[in-house]
Every structure is written in C-alpha cells, then in structure tokens.
Design a protein that fits this description.
heterodimer, A: 335 residues, 2 domains, 12 helices, 73% helix, globular, B: mainly alpha, 64% helix
C-alpha cells in the first residue's frame, strides 16, 4: 500500500490539473467581474492602432473569432481554456508582430536558472543551519552565532534586493546593478560571458537566498528538536552509535522529508517573489517581462506570463510530489 | 508555517501559574508586540503632531535630504528641520508619507488575514470534523490554491482592474489567505478529536458545535494567532509587491507606491536613499515585529521549541 502506487500518481496528476485550471479560471473570471470588457478594450485598442498595421481588419476579425467575442461568456471561456492548453497566447499588444509564446520562451531560461540556483542554495544552507541550531551537541558558540543569520528572514526578497543594489552596486560598485550579462557580450560557452553572468547573478541570487534560508532553518530546527524525544533516537544513542552518525542518519534523515513537503508548498510564493526581484534588477526573465507588460498595458503578455508561472510551479510541485514516496516509502496519499 | 507546528501541543494555561512563569512572557513575542505598538502609535498619534497634507504631491520643496545629512551634491536642496526626513522628487514630505502610509499597509494586511482566518476556521473545522468527501474536497482545494503563485494572479487582476481601493485590495488578498489556516486547523482538529477531554465532553452530551467552539477552539488559540500574524505579514508583502509594481491604489500614498515612484525615478542610482529607505525601514519594522510575534506564539503553543537551549 505504500510508495508510488498508481492511485497516488493519479491523485497527484489530478491535483496538478485542478491547480492549473483553478489558476487559469481565476485570471479569466475576476477581471470580467469589473465593469468594462477587457478583451473588447484590447481589440478596440488594436483598432485604434489599425492605421499603422497592415491587414488590420483581418487581424481584428481573427481576434474576435479567437476570443469568441461574438458568442456568450462561456464560449469565450472555452476558447480561452483551449488557447491556454495549447500554449497559444496570441500576439503581444505592445510589440505587435511578436508572439507572446516566443517572448516567454526567450525569458524562461533566465527565470528557471535564477530560481533553481537560489532555491537550491537557500534550501541547503537553511537546513544545515537549522539542523545545527537544533542539535544539542553543537558547540555553544556556533549556536550563538547562528540566530544572527536569521535576521533577514522577515524581509521580502525585493526589499533586500533594493538594499543590495544600493550598497554593492551604487556605493561600493562591486557588482553591476542591472541586467543578466554585460553589454556587447553574446551568450555562449565562453569565459567572458560566464564571468559576466556570474557577476550579474550574485546580487539577485543573494537577495533570494539570504531572505528565504531562515524559513528552512526554523522548520528544520523545529523538526530536529521534535525528533529528539523519539524512541529510535534514544535507542541509537544507547547502542553507542557515533554522534555524527546519529545526527546525520537518524536526526536529519527523519527531519528532511517534511522540509521537502514544505518546499513543494512554498514554490508558488518563491516564484511570485522572484518576479519582483527580476523587476528590481532588470533581470531579463519572466518577472521583468511581466513588468514591461504592466507598463505597456499589454494584457495578452501579462495573461500569458502568469499562466506560465502557474503552470511552472504546478509542474515543479508535481515532480516533488512524485519524488517524495521514492524518498520515503511510508508516504502514500491515503492518510 | 514550520512543520513543527503540526505536532500537538498541550493546553496552554495562562492562569494559576507563577506570574513570571507564564509562557506568554516570551521575549520574542513581547519584543514583537512592542515594535508593532510603536508603528500603530505612530499612525494614530502622528497626525496630531505632523501635518499629513504634506504627503500630497507638490506640497513641499523637491529633493531635500533628511535634516541631519550634510551633502554637497548640487542636485539636492538644503536640508531643513521643516522636513526632518527629507522630501522626494514629487514634492512629498517623507515623514508625512510614513505617517499616512504605514497604518494603511497594516490595515490591508489585517483585513485580508482576518477574512482568510474566518474562512479557514470554518473550512478547517468542517474538514476535520465531518471527514469523508467534505474533508477530501476542502483539502484538495486548499492544497491546490496554496501552490498557485498568488502574487502573479493578483498582478493580472489588478492590471485589468486599474482602480483598486484599499478594501478591494484586501478582499483580493484574502482569496489566497485561507488555505494556510484551513490546513493548520484541519490537522489540529484531527489530532484533538480523539483527546480525552473531547471524548469526555462528548460523553456528557455536548453538541458538536459546543465541542468545537468551547473545548477545542480555546486550545488552538496560540496556533491561530501565530497563523494569523503570519498571514498578515504575507498579505502586507503581497500588497506592497503590487504597489511597488505600480498596481496599488493610486491616489493615496502607500509605502509600496512610494517605493514604486522611487524606483521609477531611479532614486537608488541618484543616491536618494531616504526616498526608498524610509518606507522599506517602516515595512521591515512591521515584518520583523510580525515575524517575532509569529515565532514567539509558536514557542508558546509548542513547549518543545522553547526547551531547545535548556536541554
């Protein structure tokens, strides 16, 4: 009854579909509760620009058909769902001939890179700190030192980002304030580019890692302390295992799994927070693209990016959920 | 929400103990409450001592640094005690902006978290007590909503609906504030349901309703409070994030909107640190206070977390 049963996999897949559908539906319905139809506004905006665009009549007709504007709201909704599932997000309103999906495809690798590096680092560092804080055998001076690293926990990613730009880019001029790589460099596997990439990445990664690692540290500390009262810990010590072995194989091994679950639950928040970090650093990922969409009131672009963010976090959560029972065979969805 | 809060806690007694033994005399909790009080008092009493109309555009000279700052940068005006925290490029006085904006940020958070908490209590209790398909539906919904990047969804909504009032903003934020309390309450109710005192109450013929609100709910208060402050903090963070992107209420100065204007005017690279620095400092005080209260309450609710250094 345990491990990766078909029932568990099916349930998780169901959750994935439900999450994506809920997110997509919310961003469809709520804007339509407000007075004024945003899609109609979009098309009239396009019409206003029609003088500059060739074949504008056909384009507008195609738009109306695409969104099912002539039909009732549920037809529009079905058309919208179909477009989203096919990842067909249409044209960008502000930079007209470009497709939204192409713009997202250009920005996606930057966001994925930034997020995976910073989440991984923060998870590893935070859990190490937390485990040490909760372990009674750790020398007192380490434990006195560690809480100071938690000072930044309550600061939002982007606010620390602003502080970091001011200190390290404006005052000290150690790192560049914006962008992902230096001007005049072409992306590729050459040394100057990689060096510039790393230099530009330090501050954004730091602003996410420093502010989020405290969350992991706190959770890990709680788990380690809670575990210490368990019978198997007392047995492990009583049978004379080396303390390092008890710590690693018994303490951490049993505490890390709830942390992985917590990671799955907090991915959405991290993805949301990182859009603001990209905005502060003008990092060319999806968050910065989103900001440009907002500035240019480019509804198709905004909608497309947010749908991709929902899809991306749901996928990451699904992968984590499917990995969990392999890590810990006790887990199955039937609780 | 640390995994440790899932462990059942013994009932917290606040009466009958030696006064200095009360778990509510938790240092982190008290410091947090103190910091929060300072912020609230600033919002309440500030308007009595300072002219808040100075928070309007063009009410003050432009680009004054804080009064104590000596600068020879020709771009900035002469510092004066008429504007102790300086002014920004739109002619707003920073002290007035702080006095007007800080309580607003707190209010958005409290309303949103309050609604989320109410919904969470109802759903969490229903799921924990009724079990069966009700539990399944609620748990599944909460689990999926919790993984949706709420900030991103809120960005779409506020990009379409340009004019958001503070109250509507709070309602929007509440849309994502309920799954946390719901999950917490459900798991706590499940663990409390079979406790001796609940069985006892059931044997005496108490109704399910009475058991929920008279027996179980009081025991969960510290958990609820800690989840509430955590949610207030999350809601303020989301609200400030939206405002910093230029998507908040536009007419009234909020802390997030001040950051937005500062960023748009490149205040960081112009060296006008007071423009973005004071709003961020105010927000950091709020966030740190709420964070200290949250972990303080966690320690009050779960004595095992308290004993870490005594062991």
């Amino acid at each position: 009854m345990a491990g990766l049963t078909p029932r568990y996999v099916l349930r998780r897949l169901g959750m994935f579909v439900l999450t994506v559908w809920l997110g997509a539906t919310i961003i469809f319905i709520i804007p339509r509760l407000a007075p004024g139809d945003p899609v109609a506004a979009m098309v009239s905006r396009l019409m206003a620009q029609a003088g500059y665009i060739e074949n504008s009549a056909e384009i507008i007709a195609a738009w109306r058909a695409r969104f099912g504007l002539d039909g009732p709201i549920w037809v529009q909704y079905l058309a919208y769902l179909r477009n989203m599932v096919m990842l067909d997000m249409g044209y960008s309103l502000s930079s007209f001939p470009s497709q939204v999906d192409e713009m997202i495809a250009d920005a996606l690798p930057w966001t994925v890179g930034l997020l995976s590096v910073s989440t991984l680092l923060s998870f590893l560092i935070g859990n190490t700190i937390g485990a040490l804080m909760g372990w009674p055998r750790v020398p007192a001076w380490i434990r006195a030192l560690l809480p100071t690293t938690l000072t930044f926990t309550s600061i939002p990613f982007f606010m620390l980002g602003i502080l970091l730009v001011y200190v390290f880019a404006y005052e000290l001029r150690w790192f560049p304030p914006t962008g992902a790589y230096g001007r005049g460099l072409s992306p590729g596997w050459n040394w100057p580019f990689i060096k510039s990439l790393a230099q530009h990445g330090v501050l954004p990664v730091m602003s996410i890692v420093v502010t989020s690692m405290g969350f992991w540290a706190l959770g890990m500390r709680g788990m380690i302390i809670t575990n210490q009262g368990e019978d198997y810990m007392i047995l492990a010590e009583a049978k004379g295992l080396r303390p390092s072995r008890v710590f690693l194989q018994y303490g951490i091994r049993n505490s890390i799994l709830p942390q992985v679950t917590a990671l799955a639950l907090s991915l959405g928040g991290i993805a949301g927070g990182s859009t603001l970090v990209e905005y502060i650093f003008a990092y060319p990922g999806m968050g910065y693209l989103l900001y440009q969409g907002i500035v240019n009131t480019d509804y198709t672009l905004i909608q497309g990016i947010v749908f991709m963010l929902i899809l991306g976090t749901a996928t990451a959560v699904l992968i984590l959920d499917l990995l969990l029972p392999i890590l810990d065979p006790r887990i199955s969805y039937e609780r | 929400m640390s995994a440790a809060t899932d462990t059942p806690a013994p009932a917290v007694k606040t009466v009958g103990l030696n006064r200095w033994d009360s778990p509510w005399l938790n240092t982190k909790f008290l410091i947090g409450v103190g910091m929060l009080l300072v912020v609230v008092l600033m919002g309440l009493l500030g308007p009595l001592f300072w002219d808040t109309t100075l928070a309007r555009v063009a009410s003050s000279p432009l680009n004054l640094p804080p009064a104590w700052v000596q600068t020879d940068n020709p771009a900035f005006g002469e510092p004066t005690w008429d504007h102790p925290l300086g002014t920004e490029s739109n002619g707003r006085d920073m002290l007035a902006v702080l006095i007007v904006g800080t309580p607003r940020s707190l209010r958005v958070g409290v309303i949103a978290a309050g609604i989320g908490m109410l919904v969470g209590i109802v759903l969490g209790f229903s799921a924990g007590f009724m079990g069966g398909w009700v539990d399944n539906v609620i748990r599944t919904l909460a689990d999926s909503v919790i993984t949706i990047p709420s900030l991103a969804v809120l960005i779409v909504i506020s990009a379409y609906v340009r004019t958001v009032s503070v109250e509507n903003m709070a309602l929007l934020l509440a849309l994502f504030a309920w799954p946390g309390p719901t999950r917490l309450l459900r798991s706590q109710v499940l663990s409390m349901r079979e406790r001796g005192y609940v069985r006892m109450a059931r044997l005496t013929g108490a109704s399910t309703f009475a058991i929920m609100f008279k027996e179980i709910l009081p025991n969960l208060l510290p958990y609820l409070a800690s989840s509430f402050t955590g949610n207030v903090s999350a809601a303020i963070l989301a609200a400030t994030g939206l405002e910093a992107l230029g998507l908040g209420p536009t007419r009234i100065p909020t802390l997030g909107m001040t950051i937005f204007y500062a960023l748009r005017a490149a205040a960081i690279l112009r060296g006008m640190w007071w423009w973005w620095g004071f709003p961020i400092a105010a927000l950091i005080v709020i966030f740190t206070a709420l964070f200290l209260i949250t972990i303080g309450l966690d320690e009050i609710a779960n004595p095992r977390l308290r004993g870490a250094k005594a062991r």
